[in-house]
Amino acid sequence: TLGKGDELVLLPRIEGMFTGGDLTLRDLSVSSGGAASPVWRLPAVREGTTTNASDGNPITAAGKPVWRLDQLWPADQHIIAAHYKPLVWSGTEWVAAAHGHGGQPGVRVADGAFIAGIRGAWTGVDGQQQRTAALVFIAPRTGIYRVRGAARCKPWEGEAKTFPLVLLKKDTQRAAEIRRIEVPRDDAPVPFDVEVELSDGHELLLLPLIPHWHNAGTVRIEGVEVSTK
Q1: DSSP string covering 60-126
Q2: Do the Cβ atoms of 166 and 77 come closer than 8 Å?
Q3: Which of 52, 54, 127, 212 could join 86 via S-S bond, C-beta 3.0 to 4.6 A?
Q4: Distance between terminal CA atoms of the chain?
């Protein structure tokens, strides 16, 4: 408990002679009065437990599913709720159980970020659809949610100038687009900050798209933070 004018000091200590190093404090926050509003972030790392299965997806918090890694297939109608299916664990990353191409979509959760290898439509390949994946937040209760973060894209094939990141609100039937952000190909971070009202169990989707033929790349969504008012 601090009174007016009191100070809170965080003082690192190093025990022993001839010892030194760097200390980094991340996500430090201080609040006062009453219970703090919950904040949901991705874990630093998320791996599966069984190959070719979705065990560990969704990711839970306080016993409830909060984050899910989904494939979108078919990808030409991203407003259809039934087109989103959980990715499975390959042993090294989260992948599609079917309808993948060249290893895409392939997703990792590393350093607290969603990192997805995705691919646009390819001539003559399985319906000529893009191979992409979504980061899904599952609302644990009804409320107004704020989602913040930054997206960046680093293509390895194709010449598209920008790639859209689409934010959608999804119920059991449909996904409605609420924001579309164009992410440049130069790997520069593009921040986003969006508010949306969600009912208990409804979902907020962060969906990178490559609507361009014969393009492929890595999309990174980092610093993702969801909070309630």
Answers
A1: EETTEEEEEEEEESSTT-TTBGGGEEE-EE-SSSEE-SSS-BTTBSEEEEETTEEEEEEE---TTSG
A2: no
A3: 54
A4: 25
194's tokens: 């969006």
- Decide if 205 contacts 168 (C-beta within 8 A): yes
Q: Residue 70 pairs with which residues in a beta bridge? A: 86, 134
Confidence of residue 229 (pLDDT cuts 50, 70, 90): confident
Amino acid at 3: G
Q: To 5 degrees, how large is the angle CA 164–CA 188–CA 79?
A: 15
Residue 26 reports pLDDT greater than 60: no
Q: How far apart are CA 39 and CA 227, in angstroms?
A: 5
pLDDT tens per residue across span 159-191:
999 999 999 999 999 999 999 999 999 999 999
Q: What gap in Å lies between CA 197 and CA 206, rounded to an integer?
A: 15
SS3 content of the chain, % helix, strand, coil (to 5): 5, 50, 50
| Parallel/antiparallel/unpaired status of strands 45-46 and 106-110 | antiparallel
Which residue matches tokens 């094939």? 157
pLDDT digits (tens, 9 = 90+) for 54-84: 999 999 988 899 999 999 999 888 999 999 9
Q: Is 87:96 a contact under the CB 8 Å cutoff?
A: yes
Contact between 78 and 166 (Cβ < 8 Å)? yes
Residue 19 has pLDDT above 90, yes or no: no
